[in-house]
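Inputs:
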Amino acid sequence: MRTKWSMKSKRLTKRLAVLSMSALMVAALAACGDSSTPPTAEEAGKYEVTPGDPFSAYKDEITVTMGRVTTANPKLPSGDTYENNAYTRLVKDTFNAQISDQFEANGEDYSRQVSLAIASGELPDMMRVDSKDELKELVDNDLIEDLTAIYDQYATDNIKQIYDSYDGRALENATIDGRLMGLPATSLDSAPTMVWVRQDWLDLLGIQLDADGDGAISLDEVEKTAQEFLERDPGQSGNPVGIPFVNTMNTTDYNGSAYTMLGVASTEGAFPQYWMNGEDGKIVYGSTTEATKKMLGIMADWFKNGIIDPQFGTRTFDDITALYANGQSGIAFGPWHIPDWGLISAKQMDKNAKFSAYTLEDADGKVNVAHANPSNQFIVVRKGYEHPELAVKILNLFYDKLANDKDAATTMPEAAKYQETGVDGSTRPFNIEVNSATSLLDDYSDVVRGIKGEISLDEVRTTESKNNIGSIKTYLNDMDTDDVTAWSKYHSRINGVGLIDKLTQEKKFEWMTPAFSGTTASMKQTWANLTKLEQESFIKIITGSEPLDYFDTFVNNWKKQGGDQVIQEIEDEIASKQ
Amino acid sequence: MKQGNMKARGRLGPGAMYHMMMLPGILFLLVFSYVPMVGIITAFQDYIPAKGMFGSEFVGLKHFTYMFKLPDIAQVVSNTLVIAIGKILLGTMMAIIFSVLLNEIRVKYVKKSVQTIVYLPHFLSWVVLASVVVNMFSLDGIVNQMLAFFGLENINFLGSNTWFQPLIIGTDVWKEFGYSSIVYLAAITSIDPGLYEAAGMDGASWWRKVWHITLPGMLPIILLMGVMSLTNILSAGFDQVYNLYNPVVYESGDILDTYVYRIGLVGRQYSFGTAVGLFKSVIGIVLLMSANQLAKKYTDRKIF
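Outputs:
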């Protein structure tokens, strides 16, 4: 008995020894991580051919590892990849910098990769993060470089002007404790969420939408059209499906509102997921309002009547896009650019496919929309990366030079060709957009005047618009063209942005300005659960497993499980700013 | 005793060889099971990776209090239990029935082929199988086409809180029963054939032989396997559920592992995730202890 015990205790001592040794190792490893200071602009200059120049190459080839946000990309020439394409080769040729991808993913998978990279501390040299929360966390963990000095030194005047067109909001959002910690994407107003309807099907069935021609239709019209599409199967798929929606349901970003319910919400003046101003200085969470309840009521009715995809909730984003490609569904909710990357697959499968864009109006004929929150996409640079200025240089190259150079076709032929043929912009090293606040409608006006010949191509502000004019002219000459790029540019610019332009001019928009965006202290712990609560409750109400009045239970639970606390914190933060 | 030891050490006898062979396993266990245990302390901290385990602020039981306040936890634990117990019971039953039946097949060729075929799914990962399952059970999948053929109403299996758990249990049993029947087949072959001959002489039917000889002969193994699987009762199969679930069926399909993964790692609440994980481990240990007692009581054999 005794020997047994002593053996046991010996083993225990050994185990403890191993444990403490491994603990020491972990501590030592952690200590290794934080031993670098950011290089100054002068230091960076040592490696450059023309030190301090916004477009300077490096003397010796350097490598940069990246996390890349990908998407379905049918126009990518065969043989080219995200890692090796015209844009990455442009970076190589211009800066002598080789891009190598640490991970490539899209949607939720990308966020997951970023989370795992943060958790393991093994960040790529540069990557995009998609929330302020992640940016803050990276700063708290001292994992990313301060870009303040580098931005001042390296960013071109054009880039600085673009950011400044947001009155400081763009850079401010990426600034933490007075330091610029990431290069922000810009976020211009790109409302509303449109209803894209298969025009060729409407013609086939003899349905006329939007009789008054104001670009806005009612919910009733959508419902009737969906019903007709279901009953008569104009796509001849044999298996028509109602309107599909993503299971995240809503978003606070119109630009990313594909397949969301934001359009339906607007008919009730609801703004789910937005922080809004309530009465007497109170803050209200948009998902908990009566208007949102009404939206859910509509959705639940639709689900019951099969207007909504019966597999709602279980389909992934790509599954939904496939429904349009297969001709099973002909009504899509989404932003103005959805033809460029989503509906284009319908055209590829069916050369007769054409879409018209409408927006939804409320009972008073107004279109309810919200102003854009500052963008929550940031390019960050890993702490300790030797050439952080390369991030700003890449920004210069793609969002200034390539965008504005009138001779791009000769100076950067391969990249220019990519733009012309409509290869998806996600193949650029940074999958973000950096445009001035008014660029959407400015570009539209350029395109329209260019097509009409009112301005010459040299007067057109951006290379992209120039390409679009060419594409759209091709489409106008032959509306049955097999050129899918011509098709998509006509749809996104003339149908999509054209609708925004029309509604803006006719002053149909009823704007809501969000009261707050970002995160508060207690959200760190409670928000993941509150989001889950909202998602589950909404899905239950829509699919009919709970009655509409369950919404009140949801609101109560939401408040109790931390919502009230978050509201208090937001109110305090706003009060402290005044 | 001492002398014997010295001798063995001197010429590296057979015992030493066996111990050497254990070394990789022990190392594996140390590196992947014991070292990570240090991380448990993060459950009691507001853990920030950069500050490390020794620099992060201690917050006591904050994350545990929050966990027990969440109404979801009860749901998640009950989902885990239902799915795991369902898998253990049904899986064991299927494996036993299958091995008894397979044992009756006398043509060796047929027996081997059947065996190979039912083992096969075990070696496929859920990442692959999930897409097969999704295809079969979606609204326009083959299962619903069959239901429609018989005039039955279509069922959205992957989006129904009634059907999701049976689907998870059923597909897992289908994937694993062949492989787990190996042990039972071995148990059957170790039964003395003389018993069958004697029973045959006494005029026992096939059914009687199974009931009075085969099953009692297998009983110790059945109990042992059952008891050992009890320790897995809170691991309802992360890769399977993760690849098949969606927000519609969180209510019936979210298990502890997926919950910890989603909230803890993807939501980057490391400390909270660790707290839930620790909670799971504690229940696991309690069950392991009781399983050990049960084993002693019924099979007179302790596992440790």
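Remarks. Residues 2-33 of chain A form the longest helix (32 residues). Chain A touches chain B through 43 residues (CB under 8 Å).
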